[in-house]
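User: For my dataset I need records formatted as: sequence, then structure tokens, nothing else. Please produce one.
Assistant:
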Amino acid sequence: MADPSGKVQDGYSMRCTPQIFGASIDAFHFARKQIETELNSAIDNPLFFPEGSQYFAAGNFHGQPVAMAMDFLAIATAECASLAERHTNRMLNPALSGLPDFLVEGKGLNSGLMVAQYTRPRSAARTGSTATPRWWTTSVSPPTRRTTSTWAPWRCASTRRS
């Protein structure tokens, strides 16, 4: 049954907000748990145990848990940015909201929130472009060695910027 405005239903960006934000909040909690675990972990290589005169060389320094968590967080952030852009569009578009164009009465020098509408898609696109996972990247080093690198510092920096 349609409401008096003739709409059958709201767009996905409105109806799916709880599911999108819920999944994104879960991703944030997952990333936080991973980072807290890594901050409280032994990352020295090798690990020395003087009481038994032993040492273990391992990959405790590898940033894979942080890199994957940050990739997940970047994806969740991009999804929230995309949703925010759609909500901005719905609010500022009179055909969708019933409100004045760009929330301003009249035309002329006062453009209301037009700039917000024009910059929001660019911001969402930039955030989306940083959501490509980086943890799988490897780099090749001298002849017989292949070094895997998580690029975790790069991922952390790009997620922070998004």
